Amino acid sequence: YTAMEGSIVAKNYKISKKLGNGAFGEIWKATNVKTNQEYAIKFEEINARHQQLYAECRIYLWFHSDSTVLAQAIPQVVYYGIEGNKSIMIMDLLGSSLEDLMNKCNKKFSIKTVLMLADQMLKRVEYIHLRRIIHRDIKPDNFTIGHGRNSHRIFIIDFGLAKKYMSSTGEHIKYREGKGLTGTARYASINTHLGIEQARRDDLESLGYVFVYFLKGSLPWQGLKARNIKDKYDKIKEKKILTKIEDLCAGVPEEFSRYLTNVRKLKFTEKPDYAALRNLFKTLFKNLGHEYDYQFDWVTPGSERVNVGPEE
Question: For residue 206, which of 240, 180, 235, 177 has the smallest C-alpha distance?
């Protein structure tokens, strides 16, 4: 089976355009011919070596078995099945990723935009941790804005590498060493580079690197020359370890270095103080005199303002 424009999948979904490629396969836009509602469809070869789609689908369903409003900033899956030689997952269509939006905004964001993003992104990560899941691939591509009336909300996506870090009885996964790098080297925590089993602290450290990347437009370990992928990972690891937090955060408000210092100190099984981390940025936001009006850098001046307060 090959996805192409105009073809129908799962009886009612007409494919309209390709949205992108992932490590697993392709993502296409489709319209439900009965309701005219638009969706995204992920395709994965059923004989792919690393099957991720079914596991990812189960994680989405697990989040949506919870009725709290925060789950609404995680896309909903409406269908999973097999079409020919492909597994398919049909889910809510979202807007652009934060990576794409940053590229549109001269490759960096203003402090106001970063602080409004940080507030929502920390909430998303706190929520998935509350549901006993760690993401393990926190990066700008895996956060998107919503579609239509949700365009002021930041969604967290792509749970292909996610895993449970705690059992239903509250038992934390065991500390292990000697693991390969899971995730994206640019944003991986130092402990992940060192082969240590990931936990909540690693998602938060990755977020810290994302915030600095948003403000500065790049990180010191980008663009290193390397012979092969292993050499590249080694060089990124070395540069990350040798770069002091104050140098990494030079020229940006000190709250960002305080954030990184705090999350790097967390123990393997320790529950982070998410409220304190968000308050660091909320206080800075207030002190800078900004209004939480969802006027992100990519929102065109004069466009309809969102009349909702910040999420609590």
Answer: 240
Is 33:14 a contact under the CB 8 Å cutoff? yes
148-181: pLDDT as tens digits: 889 999 999 999 999 999 999 999 999 999 999 9
User: Cα separation of 288 and 291, whole Å?
Assistant: 9
* Choice among 92, 137, 202, 297 that is catalytic: 137
pLDDT in tens, 108-120: 999 999 999 999 9
Q: Which residues of 192-231 are buried (b: 16+ CB within 10 A; e: fewer)?
A: bbeebbbbbbbbbbbbbbbbbbbbbeebebeeeeeeeeee
**HSE-CB for 94 with a 13 A CA cutoff:** 27
Give the list of residues 6+ apart from residue 74 with CB closer than 8 angstroms, or none. Answer: 60, 63, 64, 124, 127, 128, 155, 156, 157
Please give the torsion angle defined by the CA atoms of residues 101, 103, 105 and 107, in that order, rounded to the nearest 10 degrees: 130
Catalytic-residue membership of 137: yes
pLDDT one-digit tens code per residue, 245-257: 999 999 999 999 9
**How far is Cα 16 from Cα 38, in angstroms, rounded to an integer?**
10
> Which candidate, 285, 287, 283, 304, places its Cα nearest to that of 295?
304
* pLDDT higher than threshold 80 for residue 302: no
- Residue 15 and residue 8: Cα distance in Å, rounded? 6
SS3 25: strand
Residues 236-280 have pLDDT tens digits of: 999 999 999 999 999 999 999 999 999 999 999 999 999 999 999
